[in-house]
Protein: Xaa-Pro dipeptidyl-peptidase-like domain-containing protein
Amino acid sequence: MQTEPIPILVPGNGTVLAGRVYGQPADPAVRRPVVLVTGSWLTVKEQMAHVYAEALAERGCTAITFDFAGFGESEGAPRQAELPSRKIADIGSAARFAATLAVSGPSGVGYLGVCASAQYALAAIAAGAPITSFASVAGWFHDPATVAPFYGGIDGVRARLDRARDAVARYRASGEVVTVPAYAEGDERAAMFLSLDYYADPARGAVPEWTNAMAELSWWHWLGFDGLTAASRVGVPTLLVHGDDCVFPGNVESVRDRLTGPVETVWSRGGQTDFYDRPEQVERAADAAAEHFRRTLGAGDA
Structure:
């Protein structure tokens, strides 16, 4: 019988991150595949990360979720700032912490990234994070050229960079963090302004723990990030779960082709946010991920 997740503190990159451990049973002496799980940009551990952590725990893994610095219950300033380099550092810190746990055993630590955190995990592995097996679910991997059309091309990018410049100046002058909605349909100042039921529905992603806000100073960091080139420096066993109706299928194929280690691709049906919590997509992705981690990290002592 699966137990309730256990709250933990994860030593971060100069901060303390709030985490949870999911297991069956939650016994720190029972070795099972240990997998860190994180979700999309601007989200917290109670959203898609929780869904996949529960699913992996049901399949015999020990799953650990955490809030990135500046989000949710974790420490860190500025708040609500999507800073890829900060998130990459947090992933490295969380992986080093997980590797010290007896439950992880000698085979190392796995990582499952949903949507945008997949590109951050890839970069963290390339930078030396002690992650020995990786899975991406509906992974968002972008570079400046491929992300720009989401925001109306170069004119939309420039407008956002101008607002980010002003937001940085206000933060440096007074410490004020200027925010816009993380999600608001039709509001082009919002981080996400297309119709996305996941972020609007309290039964899905609009959970009480989530703050619907993005620090406007984030734009330069987000729009300027390269989530593709790190793949050529990653040789750990990798699983890519994606589909034609998810974001950037061509970029996922590019990542696959650049990886230097063994890679398996599972092409599935469903749109991007279907993979966040819809049973059909979650079940298939979790089945594939659990098998991947059992094969690459070992079945443990269970």
